[in-house]
Amino acid sequence: MKQLFNQIFRIKKYLISLALPLLMVILGSCVLSAPALATGVYQIPDLTTKDPQWVIDQGEVISRINEGKISSTFEDLAKQTGNEVRFVTIRRLDYGETPESFSQALFEKWFATPEAQSHQTLLVLDTVTNGIAIVTGDESKSLLTDSIAESVADETIGVPLRDGNKYNQAFLDASDRLAAVLAGEADPGPPEVVETVQVEGTFTKAEETDQGNATAWVVGLLIAATVIPMATYYIYQINQPSPDEQQEKSS
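Request: output the structure for the sequence above.
Response:
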């Protein structure tokens, strides 16, 4: 019977020694999961001549079919006019970054000189806040004026997003409008807005994002408050002597 107790005790210590690292890994992943989702400019791949990549959907909000349609539209535009447009979606910005600062930095990373930037247009969307920024080169800006670019961001894309986060519709409409404007055609304008009574908005605000980050940290601290005492207890249990050792000390 004593041998059985000793064997059970050794198995218990072994299982506890395996559980402790696992608990610490789970705790670390819970606390660090939110910051890990942030995207920096350095994480966006460079453009290549073989694969121009008209759409980079890291936010995973555009279907493959619609991504193909948008890419085809922009490829045709580039061949016919020399003006190029790219869409980039990301999940979350780095701390202190804005859609405007991110898009400007990415624009300069991809197109280092004024000559390279001249016929380029870049649209960036952060899917957490639905913040949008558009950067254009000098030649493209003569067609895609600031007022049109603002309308594309606030209305062509903004309206479908406020109406239930309809990303595919938003980007399809934006690609058609940008292609028309940059081809020298008349601006088709934003989509017609149908007035509806909205009980609760679906547009994610920056305040809600901050609250979500705070919630993630609170959850992480609560988990830590639970796991750390457990880990301490496990360590205490591991260091306890076996029944044989206890008997030897008592004798």
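The chain has two domains: 41-182, 206-250.
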